Amino acid sequence: MLKNVSSLFIVIFVLIILSGCSNYFDGGQIQNVGMLVDSSIDDQALAEKGYEGLQDIGEKYEVDVFYEENVMTEEETIEAVDAFVEDGVNLIFGHSNIYGAHFADIASSYPDVHFVYFNGGYVDENVTSLNFDSHAMSFFAGMVAGEMTETDQIGMISAYEWQPEIEGFYEGVNYQNPSAEVQIKFNSDWNETNSAPEIYEDMRDDEVDVFYPTGDAYSTGVIEEAEEDGLYAIGYGSDQSKIAESTVLTSTVQHIDKLYELVADEFNTESLEGTIMTFDFQDEFISLGQFSPDVPRYFQNEVKEAVDEYINNDLLPNQ
């Protein structure tokens, strides 16, 4: 209770200071930039990409950048935001969907700060949600998995049942290989790394030979195990072919670093709105990664042509 009261006093104090300094935040232009992460930057490939984007913004606009790791609760979010604001930050990225509710609750207390987070439905005048349309990218990943499986058993390790990757991947596998079965198990959290190895082993013992782990905190571990067992995997979040070139058939890549810079550009020109923004292949913020040399060249070309068709006409191969 005392911590909540203390946080409230800090918010009030900061607002008083800002109200007395009319030029502290100037017309929506970037002053400094902050990023909140619900784990650590080193634990997630996507968080690393976000950090790279943060650094790029700092260099481009010659501003200071700040980040805070392991921020989970609303109280921790308020404390981190207070610290950012004291450092002159007026654009804050929350690198997780958990920040949507937190930002919506506190946004009115920071009218000169714009809050940005990922994959959620909370918006406000100064709260923006960035969403990757991951259905199509997972469809193409499913095509690759369906083509490359030899046992017709494919495993998907997801964090949550609502992930659009699930439907897209299933449709892609079924389109390419109607005989294949997709086993889906849930890891319970984006950042959970202890359950994934057990799920992997259960699937491997059930003859799964292609894995799609749709959580960047645990995808690396699954890929490394697949490499040891001579099996295949689809990378997630970033191009993970560098982990195991032959093992990683391809990756579903989300270019968060480039998206950070786009948001900063819009904010700096006062065109960033409090709304839900969605991005896909057409926006060049989603792509497929490098193909494994084990994927036949003719099929690589087939998938690339299907991606081009989707970019040009919004049509997946099953439509």
Task: Provide a brief overview of the structure.
By secondary structure, the chain is an alpha/beta fold. Helix content is 43%, strand content 20%. The N and C termini lie far apart (55 Å).
List the helices and strands and how they pair.
Elements: H1 2-19, E1 32-36, H2 45-61, E2 65-68, H3 74-86, E3 89-94, H4 99-106, E4 114-118, E5 127-132, H5 134-148, E6 153-158, H6 164-176, E7 181-186, H7 195-205, E8 210-214, H8 216-228, E9 232-237, E10 248-254, H9 256-268, E11 276-279, E12 286-288, H10 297-313
Parallel strand pairs: 1-2, 1-3, 3-4, 4-5, 5-11, 6-7, 6-8, 8-9, 9-10
Antiparallel strand pairs: 10-12
Helix pairs in contact: 1-3, 2-9, 5-6, 5-10
Model description:
The structure is a single chain. This protein is 43% helix and 20% strand. It has 319 residues and is α/β, with parallel strands linked by helices. The strands form two sheets. The chain has a six-stranded parallel β-sheet with strand order 2-1-3-4-5-11, with helices on both faces. A six-stranded mixed β-sheet has the order 7-6-8-9-10-12, sandwiched between helices. α1 runs parallel beside α3 (74-86) and α5 (134-148) packs antiparallel against α10. 46% of the residues are buried.
Q: What's the oligomerization state? A: single chain
User: What sequence of helices (H) and strands (E) makes up the elements?
Assistant: HEHEHEHEEHEHEHEHEEHEEH
Question: Residue ranges: pLDDT <50 for 5 or more in a row?
Answer: 1-27
CATH class of the largest domain: Alpha Beta
Count of discrete domains: 2
